Each structure stands twice: as C-alpha cells, then as structure tokens.
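Can't paste images in this forum, so I'm doing it all in text. The chain is below; anyone willing to post the predicted structure tokens underneath?
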Amino acid sequence: MSEADTTQAAATGTTPDAGEAVLPGAWGLGLRRGALELKQFFRQRDQVLFTFAFPVVFLTLFASIFSDDVEGAGITASQLYVASMLAAGVMSTSFQSLGISIAIERDEKVLRRLRGTPMPVAAYFLGKVWLVLVTCLMEAAVLLLIGTVAFGVTLPSDLTRWLTFGWVFLLGITGCALLGIAISSLPRTGRSASSVVVLPFLVLQFISGVYIPIGDLPGWLAGIGALFPLKWMCQGFRSVFLPDSAAVIEQAGSWEPGRTALVLAAWCLGGLVLCLLTFRWHGRR
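Text version of the structure:
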C-alpha cells in the first residue's frame, strides 16, 4: 500500500487490504470521461464539420454582405460580426450541442446504463464540460484567425482586455452549458430534440445583436434579448476586440463590464438550479 493510501486510510479511519485498488475520484473520472467524449466527437466527421463550419459560414456571409463602415463607431460592419459570431459560436457549441446530444443519449437509454454504473454522477457532467471547453476554444481560435486575416480585426495587446475575454468566455460557456443540460429534458424524444433546441437559439441570435445591430432592434425586442446570456456575451466580446469608440452602438452607450459579469454569473446560478430541478436520467415515455 502506498503512502497516499495510508494517509487516506488514516483520515477515514479505515484500513484497506494490501491488494485493494483505490478507485479514482470524480475529477479523475471526469477527465477520462472528457477524453472519451472528445474522441467520440472527432470520430463523427459530419458533426465536427457542422460545429466548426456553422459560425464560420455565417461570419463570412454577413461580413461580406454588410461590409460598410458603422456610422460614428470607427469600425466596419464585418468587424462587428466577428465579435458577435464568436458569442454565437460559443452558445451553439455549448447550449445547442449539449441540449441535443444529451436528449438523444437519454432516448437511446445511454444515460440509464451510465446511471447503473459505479461512475459518480458528477463525472458524466464533467466530461461534457471538458468537451464543450475544448471545442469552444478551438472554434474561437478559428473565428479569430479568420477575423484578423480577412476582416481586419486587431487582436488586443492589452492584458486587461484578454482577462475580460477570459471571464466572458468562461462565464458564457458555463451558463450556456447549464442551460443546454436543462433544456435537454424538454424534448419528448431524441428525434424532436433538434426542433426544440434550435428554435429558441435561432430567435435569440436575432434579438441579441448577432445578426442585427442591437441599436436597430425595437426597444421591446432588445429588452427581451437583454434577459438572456447571448446578448451579454456579444457585448463582452465586442468590448475586447473593438475600439472604445464602438461602444456607442450599445444600448447604454458603453460596454457595461460590471453588468455583463453580473448577468452572466446570474445565468450560471440560474442554469444550475434549472438543471437540478429538471434533469432526468430516464425518458418521459
């Protein structure tokens, strides 16, 4: 028995046998589960292609069609779309992908079989978190590369802006992933998951400043969009990659970093509560 096992035994008041294996904890199993999720994801080439091509194609289309200067902001419309599509890509990879994939796994009884194994419940969700984190980072790198090469976006040299990118990115991923897990319980079958999950995400993109500048929206629609995390992720990423002069396009005329952090953190807590209240391991049929 190793020194670590002896210490653990002393702390718990138990004495494991000399040949007894020490099982990994939830964090270790979550990391292994994440590696498995990533391996399965990259083996499905059509899913990989769609996940990374979706924001890139829409960015190219909108940035090419609407390439004029934004009046009074000191930027072009294409630069504006780079930051907005980065937020949409994060939500697509976390909220939409998780909501659909978990609903399908529930319908195919994968969740039921996992629930019957000794694997801690937390390890399953940690595996999903690792999958979302890695894919979102790769997707963000691709979008920023295209934005800098094709559309004139300048990467910030200020450490403060990169720190802002970090907390907007992490809070956005966390909140959207939790909402994806929560909405996965809404579809009755795996076949209906795409319809149930895609519709609210598509609506949010139009009222959160992704495709249409927030200043061009009716006030009541912009108010509804401000209730959800996508609008604040868009605004947070714009504050990182656009000059300060571009803040005039926002509803408040400023980047509002404090309010952005508050709303995204609130959605992290709200998403966690929704998951605890709604998540099911078994289908409703």
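The mean pLDDT is 85. Residues 27-278 form one domain.
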